[in-house]
């Protein structure tokens, strides 16, 4: 095992990592959500490890799809109106470690962010996606490299 400064456990043999494009398998959400999520995950693994990022066939591999994009009211007030809405995103992630199959997993990761009900999702989506993607990629990284 090899340990990086952030405590991540990475096989000593691993030199490369690949993050496939995560497709949007939902009927909602802007077309850019796949691109934004994929880029964020690539950024996280390239900045928090010393592995070389490859387009495909890395020693360690991430692939998957965005499987749910949902906006629903939360924080119902006394007049039956929602004070906030919640954007929830679920990503199915498959992680493959060529050197240690016991570390492989396929799992759903879900995170959300709330926004004022009197604003439109389209006006808030970029900010919400930035926060949700940060949380999702942190969860995914921790599951793959920190045994969480």
Report on the architecture of this protein.
The two termini are 16 Å apart. By secondary structure, the chain is of the alpha/beta class. The protein has one domain: Double Stranded RNA Binding Domain. The protein contains two helices and eight strands, in the order E-E-E-E-H-E-E-E-E-H. A hairpin with a 5-residue loop joins strand 6 and strand 7.
Estimated helix fraction? 25-40%
Number of strands: 8
Radius of gyration: 17 Å
Structural class: alpha/beta
Integer count of domains? 1
Number of alpha- plus pi-helical segments: 2
Biggest sheet overview: 6 strands, mixed
Question: Which percent band covers the strand fraction?
Answer: 35-45%
**Helix and strand run:** EEEEHEEEEH
Bulk shape:
elongated
Q: What is the average per-residue confidence, as pLDDT, rounded to a whole number? A: 90
Give the gist of this structure.
The chain is of the alpha/beta class. Helix content is 28%, strand content 39%.
């Amino acid at each position: 095992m090899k340990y990086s400064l952030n405590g991540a456990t990475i096989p000593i043999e691993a030199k490369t990592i690949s993050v496939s494009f995560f497709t949007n398998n939902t009927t909602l959400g802007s077309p850019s959500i796949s691109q934004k999520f994929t880029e964020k995950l690539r950024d996280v693994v390239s900045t928090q490890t010393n592995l070389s990022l490859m387009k495909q066939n890395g020693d360690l591999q991430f692939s998957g799809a965005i499987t749910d994009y949902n906006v629903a009211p939360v924080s119902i007030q006394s007049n039956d109106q929602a004070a906030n809405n919640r954007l929830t995103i679920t990503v199915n992630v498959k992680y493959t470690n060529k050197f240690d199959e016991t570390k492989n997993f396929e799992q759903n990761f879900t995170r959300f962010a709330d926004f004022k009900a009197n604003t439109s999702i389209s006006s808030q989506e970029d900010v919400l996606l930035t926060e949700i993607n940060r949380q999702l990629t942190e969860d995914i990284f921790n599951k793959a490299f920190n045994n969480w």
